[in-house]
Write a structure and sequence with these properties.
The structure is a homodimer.
Chain A (H helix, E strand, L loop, with lengths): L17 H14 L12 H8 L3 H13 L3 E4 L5 E4 L5 H12 L5 H22 L6 H16 L2 H17 L4 H19 L7 H16 L3 H21 L5
Antiparallel strand pairs in A: 1-2
The structure holds a DNA duplex (30 and 30 nucleotides).
Chain lengths: ~240, ~240
DNA sequence: ATTCTTTATTGGACCTACCAATAGCAAGGA
DNA sequence: TCCTTGCTATTGGTAGGTCCAATAAAGAAT
């Protein structure tokens, strides 16, 4: 059957851009398990020779993979491109780019995070099993120490870990990574605007939250958490920008 | 206060990797709104001259931004690098990479998606306002047509749109993009394994879901949706892989 | 045994040249 | 007039070379 006049009879013999083919090759090796996190790729010059392309092409391919968070390169002797473990960074840079492009607002991101954290608690409540709270207990204890000793620098990673442990209650990596990415994003923008927050209020909220969880009052925990986040949110917008 | 012997007294004057500085510059211009979607960057040779770096460096920077989904390049006269609109593709490739790196499983992704769609319905129910169902109505009508006329090819994008419209009920772009990304991922892997599914069963589920929503029975809608997704999930794992 | 020096390796940057796609314009023919 | 054809300038894509800088390991000096 003949094609209509305007339609293409032939597909292009070769898709443009050699470096994309190189990226594809490496992705395939990763997906097939031939390359695993920690493995080292051949040197750029060697790869170029093996694939019969210029070193430029190899470098652009590595740049693409590195930007996607699948590689890290080290200089010097015995350096090279090493396969990375997956991390939330890949999602959070994607979210960050969407914020930069004005495709999503920080308000939306904030609301989505509150909703998702609440969803996690709903899920735990519904499962009927008593969750393992040891990680959260330890985190709140460490936060209490950091507040009393005045080590405000330690509080930022502890806060990140706190929300991570909530997400981890579901034992679902996809949710963990997504929530981690949101937390990372929010913290990045938050640090630009507020220097510090009220430590006592923070501790009070954390303890109340944990007490609710221990007692199995998941709805109350959810309310406590979302109200705390609301307070932070208000602070964020009211605080003077300090870029 | 003097630093300990081993510690660095000075930070390096310039961090390695010039192309990262170039990426940063362009990102800044984007964040500041000086560059907007649709705008065209100067030609590579011109950019290289302006920034006083080699064309190679410019290209590697553009590759990084392009991979992040912020740019697209066109060849030829009046070609160049054009700023893109944000899209869910950026998140979905991040998710895809995490699956490839075995950091998250498809099961987790599937479960997370079911949870998040349920969360959307909870949120709508809680808001108390009657949602605008026109988009969903139209989508289901179109699906019905595609099923009866046997146009199975149309059903894939319609399914994607269906879940997108559910996400859109929250009017939160962050959630929309995240759920869209999940849908895209799942569909990509699903298409590799199942050729088709039962159209009647699909329609039945869609209509029941919509009826529940119209009547304000959000919990029932949630159950209907999650059961449908469960069925798809089971099909997915039982179907013979066809790579 | 410890410390310093050398050296081979390897990524980072630069450069020049050429190829290939593309849009716009001009010339030519129906 | 309108459409085709071909030329041309612009611009990204690829090649392949040079040099620099960081680095780890081997070797030399203490």
């Amino acid at each position: 059957m003949a094609k209509a006049a305007g339609e293409a009879l032939f597909d292009p013999v070769r898709s443009d851009r050699t470096f994309e083919l190189v990226v594809q090759r490496i992705r395939e090796k990763l997906a097939a398990g031939e390359l695993r996190p920690g493995d080292k790729l051949p040197a750029e010059r060697e790869l170029a020779k093996q694939l019969d392309v210029s070193r430029n092409v190899v470098r652009e391919a590595l740049r693409a993979l590195e930007n996607a968070g699948m590689l890290k390169t080290r200089k010097g002797a015995h350096g090279g491109a090493f396969i990375e473990e997956g991390s939330a960074a890949q999602i959070s840079t994607a979210l960050n780019d969407l914020v930069i492009l004005n495709a999503i607002s920080l308000d939306d991101l904030f609301e989505a995070r509150v909703m998702m954290l609440g969803m996690v608690l709903d899920h735990v409540a519904q499962s009927g099993k008593a969750p393992d709270l040891s990680a959260l207990e330890a985190n709140v204890a460490a936060t209490a120490e950091a507040v009393t000793t005045g080590e405000s620098a330690r509080r930022v990673p502890l806060a990140r870990a706190f929300y991570h442990e909530i997400a981890a209650l579901t034992d679902n990596r996809a949710l963990e990574f997504t929530i981690d990415a949101q937390t990372e994003m929010i913290q990045t923008y938050l640090r630009l605007r507020v220097s510090d927050m009220d430590g006592d209020k923070l501790l009070q909220s954390r303890s109340a939250f944990l007490a609710h969880l221990r007692a199995g009052r998941f709805d109350a925990a959810k309310v406590e958490l979302s109200e705390h986040l609301e307070r932070v949110h208000r602070r964020l917008w009211n605080a003077p920008p300090t870029p």
